[in-house]
Amino acid sequence: MSENLANLKKTTFYQLEGFLAKIFYFEQIDSTNTFLKRYFQSERERVKDRSSLEGIGAIADLQTAGRGRLERVWHSPIGEGLYFSLLLMPRIDPINITLISLMAAIATAEAIMDTANVVVDIKWPNDILINKRKVAGILIESGFEGSSLSYVVIGIGVNLQQKSFPTDLNRPATSLFLETNLLIERNKFLLVLLEKLSSWYEVLETRSDKITFRWQELSSFAYGKQIKVNINSQELVVTTIGLDSCGALRVETIEGRQIVLYGNEITTEG
């Protein structure tokens, strides 16, 4: 923790609709998600009111150990992307935790559309694509106390200004610059993203059905997408038929059997 704070450049506050965002800016850090998880663990007993930790964020010029879902490495070249995490304490039933991932995807997609004026797609649950290439990824990590959700850390990586990518990435990648020829400034994008996250966070706690509806509006993967899944060590070809009320992906087998997926069962999408 002290090593990370030694690289702290500045702290900025943003008063948003749903919470006060306190953002730590770092020159270099291992992972913004890892930092916030450590920060919560070190501060939760010190503060009188844990809710004061909600809205704390971390952003870095460079991540040395950035990662995405399933522990995949996130390519994080210095100064070319947004590498950002936010700590929240949603008051929701843990059964609906997938909705947090969908909420973050919606907010990120809308921020990209608003700043770059480009059409995006969402691959379930939260990869943001432009022209079938990944432009942003989201990693949700959560902490529990007993059966209650204690906190979530939303990690968001957005490729803003990259002009090229390594050839050994898990899937084809792109950036907003490559797609639009616009050099979008990181802090400008961050402010739009924070406003979107704040707005949809309020929806999460009041009208979560709007999240599943909006996600399905933005995603070509919601309906009629053929994918391969692994169920009980058996690979099946299925077709997507929308989300359930908790945000899980519903699919149908060739025989007409319906299955609900929570993420790791999917082997090939699209």
Task: Kindly describe this structure.
The chain is α+β, with helices and mostly antiparallel strands and 270 residues long. The protein folds into two domains: 2-218, BirA Bifunctional Protein, domain 2 (2-Layer Sandwich); 223-269, Roll (SH3 type barrels), CATH 2.30.30.140. 27% of the residues lie in helices and 36% in strands. The protein has an eight-stranded mixed β-sheet, with helices on both faces. A five-stranded antiparallel β-sheet has the order 12-11-10-9-13, with no helix packed on it. A hairpin with a 3-residue loop joins β5 and β6 (127-130). α3 (98-116) packs across α5 (186-206) and α3 crosses α6. The longest helix has 21 residues, at 186-206. It is globular and about 60 Å long. It starts with a helix and ends with a strand.
Keywords:
globular, 8-stranded mixed sheet, alpha+beta, BirA Bifunctional Protein, domain 2, 5-stranded antiparallel sheet
Outline of the structure:
This protein is an alpha+beta fold and 270 residues long. The chain has six helices and 13 strands. The protein has two domains: 217 residues, Bira Bifunctional Protein, Domain 2 (BirA Bifunctional Protein, domain 2, 2-Layer Sandwich), CATH 3.30.930.10; 47 residues, SH3 type barrels (Roll).
